[in-house]
Design goal:
single chain, mainly alpha, two-stranded antiparallel ribbon
């Protein structure tokens, strides 16, 4: 046995001496370039599987958009409201609503100004309508893609937290 390994077993080596002993132990030992390559390959394989699952999920969500989405269980009065505002944006009318079933708002007249505080969704609908989709299908497509975007954002957030944790360690 190597004298450096004997000292390692007894625990009488400094950190630098342990690194030298590990490097001199040969290609099959822990800490060699070969094991880090295998570790990288396993990480790559895990991420490949996760990415394939995410792509399959996204394709399924897009393919599952109903043929007539206006009459599906996923289309409600809020969806209609946002679709109308997105359609009006696409047509150049601005953030206006042509119809309103919510009687409690009692608008003085219609069309009325858009009163929702979240304009991004109607803006995305208007943007997708430029590709030839109708407002309802554009809304369903945004929903399908945003769930995948959320998973990617959460993963990125976790990756950033890991990087910050390593910097403080």
């Amino acid at each position: 046995m190597c004298p450096l390994k004997d000292l390692m077993i007894k625990g009488n080596l400094s950190k630098t001496a342990r690194q030298v002993a590990a490097a001199s132990a040969g290609p099959g030992s822990v800490g060699s370039g070969e094991s880090s390559t295998l570790r990288m390959n396993r990480t790559w394989q895990k991420w490949s599987v996760i990415c394939l699952i995410l792509v399959a999920y996204t394709v399924f969500r897009v393919a599952a958009i109903p043929a007539d989405p206006m009459y599906s269980g996923g289309f409600c009065h809020d969806c209609s409201y946002l679709s109308i505002v997105g359609k009006n944006l696409h047509e150049g009318k601005g953030f206006v609503l042509d119809s309103l079933w919510l009687v409690f708002l009692q608008p003085a007249s219609l069309p009325m100004p858009y009163h929702n505080a979240n304009p991004l969704f109607p803006m995305l609908i208007a943007g997708l309508m430029a590709s030839g989709l109708d407002a309802v299908r554009a809304g369903f497509l945004i929903s399908a893609l945003s769930s995948t975007a959320l998973v990617l954002a959460l993963e990125d957030s976790a990756g950033i937290r890991k990087q910050i944790g390593r910097a403080h360690a």
